[in-house]
Design a protein that fits this description.
Elements (H helix, E strand, L loop, with lengths): L16 H34 L2 E12 L2 E10 L5 E8 L5 E9 L5 E9 L6 E9 L6
Antiparallel strand pairs: 1-2, 2-5, 3-4, 3-6
């Protein structure tokens, strides 16, 4: 007995329509994936390079019921000016203190201990954010 073949002999008549469609989908997917990765990379680079002032809290110490000492380290372009906002929170999470700190010195790295006055005993201090002035001022 001979078996009946339902498929064409392999390699004899070229690729099937399904194989061609699969290949096109793979190419389109690879191009779109590469474009997405490039776009994410560009946005990440633009975000990091576009920040003229960045800061971090090195440590904080609750020194009294109405104040917190915050050791703040600021990194910026030497000609950049701006401010950072610090806030402190109570144990229940409510904000009990806030302070804006200006940085106008022509230095690229500033270490400063700042006192944040509070309305109740704080349990934490955090950096809310930093903002650079629009342009360098001389």
């Amino acid at each position: 007995m001979s078996a009946v073949r339902e498929e064409l002999p392999e390699g004899r008549y070229g690729r099937s329509a399904d194989e061609r469609a699969d290949r096109k989908l793979k190419i389109v997917g690879a191009v779109l994936g590469a474009g997405l990765i490039a776009m994410i990379g560009w946005f990440g680079y633009d975000y990091v390079s576009g920040q003229r002032i960045s800061a971090e809290i090195i440590k904080f110490d609750v020194t009294a019921d109405d104040q917190v000492q915050v050791h703040l380290e600021v990194r910026k372009d030497a000609d950049a000016r701006g401010s950072c906002t610090l806030r402190s929170r109570a144990e229940d999470g409510s904000e009990v203190g806030r302070r804006d700190v200006r940085f106008d010195a022509r230095e690229s790295r500033i270490d400063e201990v700042v006192t944040v006055r509070t309305t109740a005993r704080a349990t934490s201090a955090e950096l809310a954010g930093c903002v650079a002035d629009d342009g360098p001022k001389g």
